[in-house]
């Protein structure tokens, strides 16, 4: 059939393992043949109406949810505007290939500004901040980890003057979305099944996944559901995947509703301004760049910004809502003086903690970028390509600075059976932004070797940053100043996290695999002495890894709080008919990955909007049983 036979055919077949996974013929391009939800119907420029009842800006983790729930109101015409394109099937569906989407056309490709306290060993002293420019937003680029955060996070939100945002209230909205397909969790009082968002473990795992958990138990932690009654402990990760493939919010919430006649979805529609009457301060429409021209679309009821923690504050400032002095400097007429862009928070970790393993049990590229792995994935939804961005196990632990009795851990671990060098430096080191100097002096020698990474994450950083406009032109990326590790307490907690990772590595469970720390010193840090606290602090300041969780730039809070941008019903303070519903409204960063909390925000925002317009909603479920105290 191919014009080959005998030795020639054998040589051809044997060479197939060299084909990189992202371009292999057996990629998941045929998924839609048996996916019950086909792609959304895209509204063309000519089909767009002049006016809608509701306009949602941004089709990400919150925007897709809000679009689904508000279009349930048959009397409302709903428009969803997304600056990016539809999901690319082959790579985005494959969980283990998440890093391949970074720096791609579906990534906004933001970068932070250089700072003196962190990211010193990254390219240009900058951190890559991938954000999804695509239907599904960052849920198309992320590592799919299903983590809700800690109950105290949400109780703290409520204590800060946000009624209705305590844990007992938001739990309902986590469960509303969820379709958990692991029976031992689906029937617990903290989980549910039947929602739009599929949640399950990867169907395949390395031997290290179990060892990671066993090692945690040997350190005194329990193996438990980190999204359940208590958070402290270790767990094989659950993710937003379905049949071994990524379940983005576009796939979960938009595809099932594509036939609703009151819904329009426009892609490559870049909103450049929210139009607000300067006298009445009522938002009446948006200006969007669609089809090569600027167009104004009216909204009779609501405009909801769900453009994310970078784009939502940028769009507010471009529209005249933001810090007065900054807008004046940019030449933008001030409609509402507001602390937009402040309160920026993000999860960071030390990304350089690599360990060698003396057994072939890790995700080394040549071993798994082959025909067998591609066939397992494309035919059965199984195999190593289904691993959640490479992350197999999650843990929440206490540093010595944390009150153990509160069950509010301050360090999270992502345990990954691979390292920055597992693909020989082809893709991962560029996605993670590792500089050539750091690569060549420390990590290059690990290329294609069996390694794993223990990534300690600072859960509640005290350092805060800000976002400011670089230009009044809407297509110019804003300045991002994350201010990582500016507070000394953040450095101290992260160093303790590194020490816990080292203790984890020498447990019997890990030593059965011949684990050793990759101890090649950072040339920039040797003056502090090997493996001292100051040495590890220096390392963390050089290999500072974002966990891709920027939040807080449109802070939710009471009107009496001068830092608040939106109130507890997510209405922009001082502006009528305009809300923000995405990660930017978080007053404090949650203690865990942010994708699922943002989906929860979308669910809760939808009910609040319906309530405010007199639309009946389903009653809130009763809270779960009282939390018990473990002795």
Automatic annotation (TrEMBL):
Q: Which UniProt keywords apply?
A: FAD, Flavoprotein, Membrane, Transmembrane, Transmembrane helix
Q: Short name of one Pfam family for this protein?
A: GMC_oxred_C
| UniProt keyword annotation of Membrane present | yes
Record InterPro entries: FAD/NAD-bd_sf, GMC_OxRdtase, GMC_OxRdtase_N, GMC_OxRtase_C
Q: Where is the signal peptide?
A: none
Positions bound to FAD: 134, 271
* Gene Ontology MF: a single term: flavin adenine dinucleotide binding
> Which Gene3D superfamilies does this entry report, sorted A to Z?
FAD/NAD(P)-binding domain (3.50.50.60), Glucose Oxidase, domain 3 (3.30.560.10)
All residue ranges annotated as the Glucose-methanol-choline oxidoreductase N-terminal domain in the record: 132-155, 308-322
The entry assigns this protein to a family as follows: Belongs to the GMC oxidoreductase family.
Identification of the protein by name: Glucose dehydrogenase [FAD, quinone]
Q: Can you name the source organism?
A: Folsomia candida
